[in-house]
Specification:
This protein has two domains: about 35 residues; about 110 residues, Immunoglobulin-like, CATH 2.60.40. It is about 20% helix and about 30% strand. The strands form three sheets. The chain has a four-stranded antiparallel sheet, with no helix packed on it. The termini are far apart.
Length: about 150
C-alpha cells in the first residue's frame, strides 16, 4: 500500500473542514447583522413653530410609544451639529429656552410620547449655534437607548 494516496485525501478533508467553519462564521455574522434589535419605531415629522423664534415642533404620527426618559435627541443645522444638544426631558437646558412643551418638558407627568402628540423645544439664540432659521436644513435624529428610532427634517 502506498502512502502517497493518503496525502491528497487528508488535504481534501482539511479544505472541506476549513470551508465549513468559514461558512458557519459568515452565516453567524449575517444572522447577527440582520437582527433588528428592540428599538421602537415611530413616524415623526419636524417643522418650525410659530410661537417662538427657533422653535422646533416634533409630531409623533404613528408607531410605538416612546419613553422620553430613554431618548437622545440630536439636532443638526445644515449638516452641522448644534453646539449644545438637548437632554430630554428638560425644562430649560444649556443652549435651549424654557419654552419646551409636550413630552420633552420635565414638568410633564407622562413621560410617554405617543401618536398624536407634539413635543417642542426652542434653540436659544444667544448661547447655541448654528442658529436654525426658515432657510436652514434642520435634521433631528432621535435615538432610544442608543438605537436609532427616526430622523426628521424641517
Amino acid at each position: 500500500m502506498s502512502r502517497r494516496a493518503v496525502s491528497p485525501v487528508i488535504g481534501v478533508v482539511l479544505i472541506v473542514a476549513v470551508t465549513v467553519v468559514l461558512a458557519a462564521v459568515v452565516g453567524a455574522f449575517v444572522v447577527g447583522v440582520g437582527d433588528a434589535g428592540n428599538a421602537p419605531e415611530a413616524a415623526i415629522t419636524a417643522k418650525f413653530g410659530n410661537e417662538y423664534p427657533n422653535q422646533i415642533n416634533l409630531t409623533h404620527h404613528s408607531g410605538d410609544p416612546l419613553d422620553v426618559t430613554k431618548l437622545t435627541v440630536r439636532i443638526f443645522v445644515d449638516g452641522e451639529p448644534l453646539k449644545h444638544q438637548p437632554d430630554v426631558p428638560f425644562f430649560a437646558g444649556k443652549g435651549f429656552k424654557s419654552e419646551t412643551s409636550g413630552p420633552f418638558n420635565s414638568n410633564t407627568a407622562d413621560k410617554s410620547w405617543t401618536a398624536g402628540e407634539t413635543a417642542s423645544l426652542t434653540v436659544a439664540s444667544t448661547t447655541n449655534s448654528p442658529q436654525p432659521s426658515a432657510g436652514s436644513r434642520v435634521t433631528v435624529k432621535i435615538y432610544s437607548e442608543g438605537e436609532a428610532v427616526t430622523t426628521a427634517r424641517v
